Every structure is written in structure tokens, then in C-alpha cells.
Amino acid sequence: xxxxxxxxxxxxxxxxxxxxxxxxxxxxxxxxxxxxxxxxxxxxxxxxxxxxxxxxxxxxxxxxxxxxxxxxxxxxxxxxxxxxxxxxxxxxxxxxxxxxxxxxxxxxxxxxxxxxxxxxxxxxxxx
Amino acid sequence: xxxxxxxxxxxxxxxxxxxxxxxxxxxxxxxxxxxxxxxxxxxxxxxxxxxxxxxxxxxxxxxxxxxxxxxxxxxxxxxxxxxxxxxxxxxxxxxxxxxxxxxxxxxxxxxxxxxxxxxxxxxxxxxxxxxxxxxxxx
Lengths: 127, 138
Fold this sequence. Notes:
The complex is a heterodimer of chains A (about 130) and B (about 140).
Chain A: H1 3-31, H2 41-51, H3 55-77, H4 80-86, H5 90-100, H6 108-126
Helix pairs in contact in A: 1-3, 1-5
Chain B: H1 8-33, H2 43-54, H3 57-77, H4 82-89, H5 92-104, H6 110-137
Helix pairs in contact in B: 1-3, 1-5, 4-6
């Protein structure tokens, strides 16, 4: 692989990491709230107002903006279909983060899926 | 909590999110292409790059599409399980390469299509595994 391509690969990995952190913080912020059913428009608006008062939601937002900026730079350099395929590595990061940080159980099917994604990413990178 | 089965209406909404996701990425790519000449060497280059990209109306159309996708996606998820929604929504892994070929004049080899296929299978497996987790919680 060319040196430039490795750098792009690193940047895509960075957007995936940002996305993972964004999801972890958002999940943690949402977990601390409750949305009683039946769901109405007014309840959803109240829910969102409560959500944006939690600092963790802002950290999540910050990371998604950061991720967008890096992503736009990546797109200015490489093909869209290449970047989008490689970006699927966030599924791998989320599987690891769920296991290590959230202590969720990762079952056989999930590992199988993760391995298949890794094989796919390798094939896309080789082409 | 019981969720409804996949109905035709929900299926249409899911396919619509695929199309929106593809539109988002296409708009971002178009916006970013206008600044492809910029190489980032010093810190102010980052600022110049972002200023250029954000002045493209394609980018704002993309952001609008992101918000719309988020609204539809959240609504769909309140009706059906994530493990059902994600495999259908990952149709965009096929749609984006197709749009890339037709509208962006990108070239995709057989090896890359094979890679896309493996990723798609992987995404489906990962999302199906969340179903087992939910059942064990009930």
C-alpha cells in the first residue's frame, strides 16, 4: 500500500473511533432518561429538551462534528465507495467497546459477523 | 415491550432511509470534491478546507438529509426491533457503490464487490446477534 493510503486508512479509523465514542456517550445519556409510553409529540420534545441539558449529550455531539470534519477530508481524497466500505470497521470497534467498557456479552454470531466484516475490509483495501 | 411485525409501510420507510443515506454520502462527496486540491500541512489549512466545504450547498443538503434520516430511523426503531431494521437498512452498502459508478464515475473491481459482499454478510450477522440478547433479557 502507498503511504498516502495508509494515512487515509488511519483517518477513516479515527472517524470510526469518534463515532464509537459518540454512540457510547449518547447511549449513556439516553439511559439516564425515561420516555413513558404512549409516546406523543409533546413527550418527544420534552425528552429532547431534557437530553440536551445533559453534558454527556454535548460530548457526543462534539465527537460527531469532529467525525464529520475528518470524514469530509477523507472524501476529498478517495473514492466514495472505498471510504464507505472501510468505514464499516466501526462495527468492529463497537463490538470491542461493548465488551470491554460496557461489559456486554459478545456472542458467537457477533464474532462471526465481525470476522466477515474484517475479511470484507481487507478485500476492499486490496483492490 | 412488544414490537410490531415488519409491515409494508415500515419496509418502505426503511428503504427510504437507505436512499437518504446514499443521498447524504453523495452530497458529502460532492461537497468535499470541490476542495480536493487542498493538502493539509499547517493548522490554518484545516480551517480553509472546512470553510470551503461548508460553503458548498451540497454539504448543507447532505446535513438536511442526515437530520431527516435520523427522524425516520428513530420512528422506525420505535416500531420494530433493531435486529430486523439493520439488515434491511444495510442495503446502502450496495446502493452507494452503484451510485459511485453511475454518478461519480468511480471504478469498482470484482475483488471490491466481493469485499462489499463480505461486509454486508458481517453487518447482517452482527445485527441478528442483538435479537438473541433481547430474548435472553425478557
